Target: Ectoine hydroxylase-like 033
Amino acid sequence: MSYPRLFGSVQRVLSRTALQNTRSSTIKGTSLLAAVSRRALSASVVTDHYPTRKSVSGLYPRVDPWFWEDKNGVRPTGPITDAQLKEYDEKGYFVMPNFFSQEEIQPVIDAIYKHKNAIESSLKDDEDPTLTPEISYSTEPGTKRLRSQFGLHRQMPELNDILKHKRIIQYVRQILADDVYIHQDLVNFHTAFTGIGHNWHSDFEFFHAEDGMPNMRAMFCSIMLTKNTPDRGATMVIPGTHKIFVGNPTETPKNQLGTSSKYKIEAGETDQKLFTDLANKYGIEYLVGDAGSVVFCDINVLHGNHTNMSPWDRLNLLPVYNSISNKVGKPFSAPWERRPEYIATRNKENITPIPYQ
Ligand SMILES: O=C(O)CCC(=O)C(=O)O
Ligand SMILES: [Fe+2]
Model:
């Protein structure tokens, strides 16, 4: 069909200009963008600034800032250093080596492996579980090895010592300038010899399309519970991609919940042509570190990972912190009203500010 193709190429031209615009202006306080997005947030009609999964692909300018201001128009101070802020501004993330000590993370590691062993030993030979409204975990395809487990922080108090650690929340609040809650928490096991990885995507693209997250006032952290190295399939990122939005062409299928977490992503996978241009421009980086290191990452940075071919597990905890003001609504591009609570927090009693002092 010629219409989508033409539309797609016009969008690409428009977006190239947008990309140049965002790149050439060194956005620090981002007050203009903040003003635009404050207007967007207060509008009674929810505007879709980030079209995706509507048959065409395209690059769009980011209308949201990545450093937010509080209600009084002030950017908070906090523990993040100027060098880290500069890195976040340019790349969309920074890694804090040894944020947690081994003593702090060990109880979490023990609790997670206990849970993993219990599930794996309960599985029958012909079972190949994936996410359903009732099942919040999936195994690596065709194996009994746990791949991902969502929503554990509501069952496992040990996890909250880390996920709701005051120091983490202070970092997140310095960037988002608001009270935050956990929109999603996930353990990725990425087991030795087995973990198959995740195709390129932006987490925001998922939350926007599937949960109705309107704005990019959210961050994810990757808390390394083992060493993260390239041979173990460390997360890879395209630095700088927090500054643009890549809309994907594949419409969200009804069975997305079960397939996207178990197998490599399809709907939500970044368009390969656009991805190639971005990778040529910005390169690809591995996020590496020792156990206890934490990545602080803008919610829109393109990332993925590959198979863990090493003989060692790569165990990561991935909380998504969303601003209380960035209320999720009707999904922007999905054939459902809402996803289960374990994968996308929506119930009022779970949307309470995490203390930070
Ligand atoms: O575990 C990783 O390296 C990345 C996983 C990921 O991107 C996700 O679960 O959204
Ligand atoms: Fe992701």
Observations:
- The pocket of 2-oxoglutaric acid (ligand 1) is lined by residues 186, 188, 198, 203, 235, 303, 305, 316, 318 (CB under 6 Å).
- Confidence is low (pLDDT under 50) at residues 1-43.
- The chain is about 30% helix and 15% strand.
